[in-house]
UniProtKB/TrEMBL annotation:
The chain crosses the membrane at residues 37-65, 71-96. InterPro entries: Oleosin. Residues 1-30 are annotated as: Disordered. It is a multi-pass membrane protein. Keywords: Lipid droplet, Membrane, Transmembrane, Transmembrane helix. It comes from the Eukaryota. One of its GO terms (cellular component) is membrane. Residues 9-18 have a biased composition (Low complexity). It is found in: Lipid droplet; Membrane. Pfam families: Oleosin. Its main location: other. May have a structural role to stabilize the lipid body during desiccation of the seed by preventing coalescence of the oil. Probably interacts with both lipid and phospholipid moieties of lipid bodies. May also provide recognition signals for specific lipase anchorage in lipolysis during seedling growth. The lineage of its organism: Eukaryota, Viridiplantae, Streptophyta, Embryophyta, Tracheophyta. This is Oleosin.
Length: 100
């Protein structure tokens, strides 16, 4: 009698269908189209040229830094006070213009 009062549990299995994408499923999957291949072939030299120019820019920046760093270290006893004097002069001129 006690078994009748309990609800019966049933297991339902539903098959899963995977959606393949509309009209694409009717056609066979092929390689890239001619337009895409031509676009890649046309843009490959442009990308290579831009990559070479960016590498050249980086190389020149490193060379310039390697040359200028020792010069800044050698001339820093002169450059630092000169920069301070110029900064104070510009600040003074700006204050004079601001105050009247």
């Amino acid at each position: 009698m006690a078994e009748r009062d309990r609800p019966v549990h049933q297991l339902q299995v539903h098959p899963q269908h995977q959606y393949e994408g509309g009209m694409k499923s009717h056609y066979q999957q092929r390689g890239p189209s001619t337009t895409k291949v031509l676009a890649v072939l046309a843009l490959l030299p442009v990308g290579g040229t831009l990559l070479a120019l960016s590498g050249l820019t980086l190389l020149c920046s490193v060379i310039g830094l390697a040359v200028s760093t020792p010069l800044f270290i050698i001339f820093s006893p002169v450059l630092v006070p000169a920069a301070i004097v110029i900064g104070l002069a510009v600040t003074g001129i700006c204050l004079l213009k601001l105050l009247g």
